[in-house]
Amino acid sequence: MSDLTARAQPDLPPLPKLIFASRWLQLPLYLGLIVAQGVYVVLFLKELWHLTVNAVTLGEQQMMLMVLGLIDVVMISNLLVMVIVGGYETFVSRMRLEGHPDQPEWLSHVNASVLKIKLAMAIIGISSIHLLRTFIEAGNLGSDKANFTEAGVMWQAIIHGLFILSAIGIAYVDRLSQPPAR
Question: Quick count: other Cβ atoms within 10 Å of Cβ 153?
Answer without folding.
Answer: 17
